[in-house]
Amino acid sequence: ADNRVITGSGTANTLNGESTLTYGGTELLISNASPSVKLNDTDNSGVVDINNVGGAAVIESTGVTTFTTNAAERLRIDTSGKVGIGTTSPSSLLNVNTPASGSTTAIEISRTTYGTVGKFINSTGALEIQSNKQLILSSDPAQGMTAAGSLIQFLIDGSEKARMSSSGGIAFNG
């Protein structure tokens, strides 16, 4: 095996390991071109690997990755790559879960100069979209999307109530 030597220096809370590993009581420092920390759970083969790859921090896990604050889970990435905020079982690529009652801003979009630009709010089960200036719905914008026959539909309870076609015509149903 490729074992490494770790020695105590005689100073309290200080460990040294073969020129690239030091512990100063509050910080474990690994100094080399590709530092890596690997925690291996021998009970169920779980692995957590923290690396610096090309200047980027990489956290790799063979299972679910969670982030907690104040002993409560805040964000989870499951093994299929789904991200959950406020949920332990995300059901889509990004699943933001808010409290069951009241009005909670789930997503806020802001700009450095102008502050809040818009919000997606869960208002007691209703999705509210707010805009600070203009709310623009765009279907096949001129930025290069190539879908033909674009339209914007308004559905209520699964039934179309209004439609705007690419020619600008508006049709109402019901």
Strand content: over 45%
Q: Please estimate the helix content.
A: under 10%
Structural class: mainly beta
Tally of DSSP β-strands: 17
What is the alpha-carbon Rg in Å? 26 Å
Describe it for me?
The protein has 174 residues and is mainly β. The chain is 0% helix and 51% strand. It is built from no helices and 17 strands. It has strands at residues 6-8, 15-17, 21-23, 28-30, 36-41, 46-53, 56-61, 65-69, 72-77, 83-85, 94-96, 103-111, 115-123, 126-131, 151-156, 159-165, 170-172. Strand 3 (21-23) and strand 4 (28-30) form a beta hairpin.
Characteristic terms for this protein:
about 170 residues, mainly beta, four-stranded antiparallel β-sheet, four-stranded mixed β-sheet, about 0% helix, elongated
Task: Reconstruct the topology from this structure.
Blueprint: E1 6-8, E2 15-17, E3 21-23, E4 28-30, E5 36-41, E6 46-53, E7 56-61, E8 65-69, E9 72-77, E10 83-85, E11 94-96, E12 103-111, E13 115-123, E14 126-131, E15 151-156, E16 159-165, E17 170-172
Give the gist of this structure.
The protein has no helices and 17 strands. With 174 residues, the protein is mainly β.
